[in-house]
Amino acid sequence: MKYLSEKTNKAYSSVEELQTAEKEFEAKNEAENKVKLARADDAKKVEEAHTKLAEATKNYDEVLTAFLKKYGSYHMTYTIKNNADDALSMADRLFNDLWF
């Protein structure tokens, strides 16, 4: 006699084999679900950070535009001490401020 598992959609020779296979199947699914939930939580954090960045950038642009309309120009000195990543991000922001 064969025993068919509704969870795994496979046939097993004994009830013990079926129960063991279903427990393994459930454990595997539970682990996969935990990973999916963790990924979704992390993605939500990234999305929230992006939203905050967009709001801060919009605020910066509004304040800078108002300043430029009032005074005509704005000078900012960028100083970088031994940090190449900061240098690249500041250079990128400066380029975007000037050309776009």
The chain-level mean pLDDT equals 85
The count of DSSP E runs of length 2 or more, i.e. the number of strands, is 2
Described by strand count, sense and barrel closure, the largest sheet is: 2 strands, antiparallel
Q: Tell me the series of helices and strands, N- to C-terminal.
A: EEHH
Relative helix content: over 70%
Sheet with the most strands: spatial strand order? 1-2
Rg over CA atoms: 29 Å
Principal-axes geometry comes out as rod-shaped
- What's the N-to-C terminus distance? 74 Å
Keywords for this structure?
100 residues, mainly alpha, two-stranded antiparallel sheet, 2 strands, 4% strand, rod-shaped
Can you walk me through this structure?
By secondary structure, the protein is mainly alpha-helical. It has one domain. Helix content is 73%, strand content 4%. The chain has helices at 15-71, 84-99; strands spanning 3-4, 11-12. Strands 1-2 form a two-stranded antiparallel sheet. A hairpin with a 6-residue loop joins strand 1 (3-4) and strand 2 (11-12). The radius of gyration is 29 Å and the shape is rod-shaped. The mean pLDDT is 85.
Task: Write the topology of this structure.
Elements lengths: L2 E2 L6 E2 L2 H57 L12 H16 L1
Antiparallel strand pairs: 1-2
